[in-house]
Design a protein that fits this description.
Distance between the termini: 59 Å
Radius of gyration: 17 Å
Shape: globular
Helix content: 10-25%
Number of helices: 4
Structural class: alpha+beta
Strand content: 35-45%
Length: 189
């Protein structure tokens, strides 16, 4: 009988044994798109994460169907707040549990990678005019680092693009477990 294995257990089991006690670290290339409701309020952020070649390979070799892997990943991420803290003018925004997600195998630069897409809903919609939205990604286990690389991966969409400007700044000499970038969306009144 096939036993269900959680995402983090799978990674730890497959990586710790061969590397003895070396700490495993991986990268996720991120994209975020702001989603608005009819009142032009931010109601959710659609995120897309492309796992690096090592993690993608480990997960693909696990033999689990992608839908089972996705469920395991999201179950684990829900316990870790999806590696994400959202702020509005420095104050934490409460989010709800992710219910919409997919995991797909993609090919980028001739590499087989996994792409996790999900929608992170806000508990209450927010007006962005005159405010700054912060997106902070940290992994408490210090294994994953999430990168946007540039503002092309921070999509404000048709509602917010007229008054919001995304900004991504690299953090020099960040440590594992810390946010490698300062990601913000500055919105005019």
């Amino acid at each position: 009988m096939f036993k269900k294995i959680s995402f983090l257990s799978l990674l730890l089991g497959l990586l710790i044994a061969p590397s003895a006690y070396a700490h495993f670290h991986y990268k996720i290339n991120s994209t975020a798109a702001l989603q608005a409701n009819d009142k032009k309020q931010l109601q959710a952020i659609a995120m897309s994460w492309v796992y690096d070649e090592n993690v993608s390979g480990i997960l693909l070799r696990s033999g689990q169907p992608l839908n089972e892997l996705a469920k395991g990943i999201m179950d684990d991420l829900s316990q870790l707040n999806y590696f994400t803290r959202l702020t509005l003018n420095g104050k934490t925004i409460t989010t709800k549990k992710v219910t919409h997600y997919t995991l797909k195998k993609i090919v980028q630069n001739k590499k087989n990678l996994l792409k996790l897409s999900f929608v992170l809903p806000l508990k209450s919609p927010l007006y962005l005019q005159g405010n700054t939205l912060g997106i902070i990604h940290t992994d408490p286990g210090a294994s994953a680092s999430l990168f946007y690389r540039n503002t092309n991966h921070l999509i404000t969409g048709p509602i917010f693009s007229s008054f919001c400007k995304p900004d991504v700044k690299a953090v020099k000499d960040f440590k594992n477990g810390e946010a490698p970038e300062i990601v913000s969306v500055n919105c005019k009144s």
